[in-house]
Specification:
Number of strands: 0
Strand content: under 5%
CATH topology of the largest domain: Growth Hormone, Chain: A
Shape: globular
Structural class: mainly alpha
Distance between the termini: 28 Å
Helix content: over 70%
Oligomer: single chain
CATH architecture of the largest domain: Up-down Bundle
Radius of gyration: 23 Å
CATH class of the largest domain: Mainly Alpha
Largest sheet: none
Length: 484
């Protein structure tokens, strides 16, 4: 039957996996994807509101708009590691829904503000509650999906974020045209009201459909058999407790340093795709204002294509290093074209759009990080948060030096910096691939079979799973009684 063939193509030939994955892909994955989409829309709402009357109404002066964004980014970066760590202690449903609802309400009450400092303060608080949106989702996805399944799901999640950023301006433009002056409210206030109203239902959707972690066996829409299968099919981490050994396990691990460094270099390399670099170049070549706004959106199209294609290939190979090498070479090729100052516009268009495909690490490298840390629950949580926080430490100041608006449209210094940072990813990819192969062969990486108690840590009086009621919260370090 065609439907059965489609189900096998989507979710594999194993009947238990198909039943489980089909439910996760219409609950867990859409929730995180929609939240990340709305995250992009929400952040773009501030820039739209600012140029649509908020600046004058609230008396923004000097660099106060920059202070608003900086306050948000600093708190956002600082809260990512604590946020992912919290997911190992509390049920994720409570963490995510509380964070999402609070973030949405903070966006809503922005329309009532009367001074710029109030919006700056709200943005700082919002940064803390929205910090879990990206890294937390990556952590949860890595807890439910196997190595052969994770890359594609991470790609879908990331693509929704790219769509949110790309379409945020269009949504705001539509709101400005249809709601300006309605009920006596200026257009910029309506932006915050509508964006908040869009986010709240999705946040509440999470209360119903977030399945927490597999070990919790809490998803009401999974059968008892599916709950057991979800809790056992990935195996169990070898390290699962918060104790003094966590510092040693994290700080002496290669994963904590190499993956975040590699991701940071990627983020620095692709700065030419941000900071309005292509738009400035288009303006210098005499393209119209409409073209200056429309042509750069092609970068998002190639980003979506690259993210999905590389993720699919890496899942099929059940290995990330091969596509990572291709991505690294793409960094070098695209940046080298820009450094060479092409004599035709076609060369620039090729470089910008080709480099768009290198947004793929947002899915592929987070999946790779999950692959090489799945043996240690706390290491995976902390490294997931640190990857993005470490990235922000550099991205916050890098464009000021290498892509300042004063260099427009000739960013040769920035292009050279991107060539160097892109090239530096290649040896790191090789080192990570080698260490992954070495530690897998040594039996260090990878989860233990669920019925192999010899490799598990002892955790006191709850080690006997017979004492646990399947309908209650199951601690993350408890073994199920039987495997499926």
């Amino acid at each position: 039957m065609p439907l059965n063939k489609l189900a096998i193509w989507l979710w594999g030939s194993n009947a238990q996996d198909r039943a489980l994955l089909s439910k996760l892909d219409i609950t867990l994955l859409p929730y995180f994807s929609l939240i990340w989409f709305l995250f992009g829309v929400t952040r773009s709402s501030y820039s739209s509101a600012y140029i649509s009357g908020m600046k004058e109404a609230l008396g923004f002066e000097g660099k106060e708009y920059n202070y608003m964004n900086t306050a948000y980014l600093v708190v956002y970066a600082v809260c990512q590691m604590p946020g992912t760590s919290l997911l190992t202690i509390l049920r994720p449903k409570y963490v995510f829904v509380t964070a999402n609802v609070t973030w949405s309400l903070l966006t809503l009450i922005t329309f009532k503000m009367t001074h710029a400092w109030q919006v700056i303060l709200l943005n700082a608080i919002e940064g803390g509650f929205s910090a879990i949106a990206y890294v937390g989702a990556q952590f949860i996805l890595g807890s439910w999906y196997r190595k052969s399944e994770l890359g594609v799901r991470a790609a879908v999640f990331c693509v929704f974020g790219q769509l949110g950023t790309m379409s945020g301006g269009w949504i705001q433009a539509g709101l400005l045209q249809t709601l300006a002056g309605k009920n006596g409210l200026p257009a910029w206030k309506w932006i915050f009201i509508i964006v908040s109203v869009m986010t709240l239902p999705v946040a509440l959707f999470g209360w119903v459909f977030i399945p927490d972690l597999p070990e919790h066996r809490a998803a009401w829409y999974l059968t008892d058999e599916q709950k057991e299968h979800a809790a056992t099919r990935l195996g169990t981490p070898r390290k699962v407790t918060w104790d003094l050994t966590v510092f040693k396990r994290v700080l002496l691990s290669w994963q904590f340093y190499l993956l975040p460094t590699m991701f940071m270099l990627y983020s620095l390399c692709v700065q030419m795709l941000q900071n309005n670099v292509m738009a400035y170049w288009l303006a210098s070549r005499g393209y119209t204002t409409v073209q200056q706004n429309n042509y750069p959106t092609g970068i998002y199209a190639t980003a979506i294509l690259g993210t999905v294609v590389y993720a699919v290939i890496s899942d099929k190979l059940q290995s990330r290093w091969q596509v990572s090498v291709v991505i690294g070479l793409s960094f070098v090729i695209g940046s080298a074209v820009l450094v060479s100052s092409p004599s035709t516009d076609a060369g620039y268009f090729f470089a910008f759009y080709f480099l768009g495909t290198t947004f793929a690490p947002q899915a592929v490298w987070y999946s790779w990080m999950a692959d090489v840390t799945n043996h240690d629950f706390q290491l995976r949580a902390i490294t997931t948060g640190f990857m993005n926080s470490f990235d922000f430490v550099f991205v916050s100041w890098w464009p000021l030096i290498f892509y300042p608006a004063t260099d427009a449209p000739h960013y040769r210094k920035g292009y050279i910096a991107s060539l160097v940072t892109g090239a530096l990813t290649l040896p790191l990819i090789g080192i990570v691939a080698y260490l992954e192969k070495r530690d897998t062969a040594r039996g260090i990486l990878g989860r233990s079979p669920i019925n192999d108690l010899s490799t598990r840590e002892s955790d006191g009086p709850h080690d006997d799973p017979a004492d646990i009621d399947d309908d209650e919260h199951v601690p993350i370090n408890v073994q199920p009684k039987t495997s499926v």
